[in-house]
Amino acid sequence: MSVTELTDEQREIRDLARRFAEEEIAPHAATWDRERTFPLDVFGRLGELGLMGVCVPVEYGGAGADHLSYALVLEELSRADAGVGVTVAVHTGAGTLPVLAHGTEEQRRRIVPPLAQGHELAAFALTEPDAGSDAAAMRTRYDEATGTVTGTKQWITNGSYARHVTVFARDGERVSAFATRTFEAVREEEKLGLHSSSTADLRFEASPAERLGPPGAGMRIALSTLDGGRIGIAAQAVGIAQAALDLAAGYAKQRNAFGRPIGAFQAISHKLAEMQTEIEAARALVWRAARLKDAGRPHTVEGAQAKLFASRVARHWTGEAIQVLGGYGYTREFPAERYYRDAKVTEIYEGTSEIQRLVIARGLLGEIAG
Ligand SMILES: Cc1cc2nc3c(=O)[nH]c(=O)nc-3n(C[C@H](O)[C@H](O)[C@H](O)COP(=O)(O)OP(=O)(O)OC[C@H]3O[C@@H](n4cnc5c(N)ncnc54)[C@H](O)[C@@H]3O)c2cc1C
Predict the structure, then answer these.
(1) Whose CA is nearest to atom 16 of ligand 1?
(2) Could you read off the pLDDT of 80-109 as tens digits, one per residue?
(3) Residues contacting residue 46 through CB under 8 Å, at least 6 positions apart
């Protein structure tokens, strides 16, 4: 099979997501962005289509598809609305999959089905006000005697709407992972973009929490979750960049200057040619990393490469899409400015680009790199 070939099942899932995104999400994206609306009902409907647990096995309520299919879904959703894309990416990749990978069978059977079916939303709470890239500096604590977690987590995607949170806390000298349903969203963040997504601070106050995985496995669970999550964010970046290309290419055919379409100027057509080429390259990196994950092979470096490259492509080319649209690109009449605002964060969350370079360099040079 060639690198660009998909199976029939993968194509069907992508087409299903594309249809839903074009019909049910894209027409509302500008309003949700402007009015900062979290489109809660959309996730119930995505759940009915099996798109809230694409890569979750059928026996746990998911669609039982592979991670490449999941990446295709994230690309299509993000092409319509990057806020919806990140909601699903964090819900499935970061909130649900660690329970599947590290929970007991009883936890899997209890916690995962309502998430995979889209009845409940999940979140992943690692970051704190003083612990971002350096996540191990966290202060949130687990109290063994009471079985509770206490602390504050910051910028938690889905925070105001989630029912299940996979949370990380200091457990004696170590960090462990926990599942909890008891927390309070104390502040909704105001962001540059992704206005249709929820990013909230969560307070845990003697919150009953059950362990996920063995004591002290928290950082290993967090890092392996992020290994997969990065592929999802890279797919999100590809989706945003593709939306910007579709817009810019369409505009270049319609807009006239000096008596001809601006696409007839080589400065514009070659810009679009470069843009399409880099998006295809980013997509190929995403597919490669997803296929390695599906094959059960190491994908830490490949996921980091996909995210590093795809997020740069998205940030750079959404800016150039504004350039193609000229003054109209800078206004809210067209979505180019939304794509630009939404793209930036793909270089920041689930590990900044600096951290991706560190991961890649360590793969190349070993521990002497950083
Ligand atoms: C919209 C949004 C949603 C988010 N969702 C979630 C979520 O659901 N769950 C969650 O847990 N977190 C979430 N985050 C947090 C996100 O993962 C962190 O912002 C990110 O990991 C970076 O941490 P920081 O912001 O504290 O930056 P810092 O770690 O303070 O970094 C600041 C700068 O220093 C650089 N830097 C830091 N360390 C190094 C180093 N060793 N080498 C080189 N450069 C370095 C960084 O790259 C960056 O440029 C979200 C953030 C945003 C903005």
Answers:
(1) 349
(2) 999 999 999 999 999 999 999 999 999 999
(3) 20, 52, 88, 118
Is residue 351 situated within a structural domain? yes
Using DSSP, state whether 122 is helix, strand or coil: strand
The dihedrals phi and psi of 165, each to the nearest 5 degrees, come to -125, 130
Q: For residue 174, what is the domain's CATH number?
A: 2.40.110.10
User: What's phi and psi for 352, nearest 5 deg?
Assistant: -70, 170
Q: What residue ranges line ligand 1, CB within 6 angstroms?
A: 90, 124-127, 132-133, 155-157, 191, 194, 199, 345, 348-352, 354-355, 358
Arithmetic mean of pLDDT, 218-247: 98
pTM of the model: 0.97
Torsion of CA 167, 91, 67, 231, to 10 degrees: -70
- How many A from CA of 188 to the centre of ligand 1? 17
Kindly report the average pLDDT of the chain as a whole number: 97
State residue 59's pLDDT score. 98
Sequence letter at residue 258: F
Q: Which ligand 1 atom is the nearest neighbour of the CA of 197?
A: 1
Host domain of residue 352:
220-368
Sequence length of the chain is: 370
- Spacing, Cα 355 to ligand 1 middle (Å): 9
CATH code, 261: 1.20.140.10
Last residue of a domain, one of 216, 247, 272: 216
If pLDDT is split at 50, 70 and 90, which confidence band does 133 have? very high
pLDDT at 312 over 70: yes
Positions marked catalytic: 350
Nearest Cα residue to atom 7 of ligand 1: 156
Q: How far is the centre of ligand 1, averaged over its atoms, from the C-alpha of 254 (Å)?
A: 40
60 C-alpha vs ligand 1 centroid, how far in Å? Answer: 32
Pocket test for ligand 1, best of 84, 155, 168, 202 (most atoms within 8 A of CB): 155
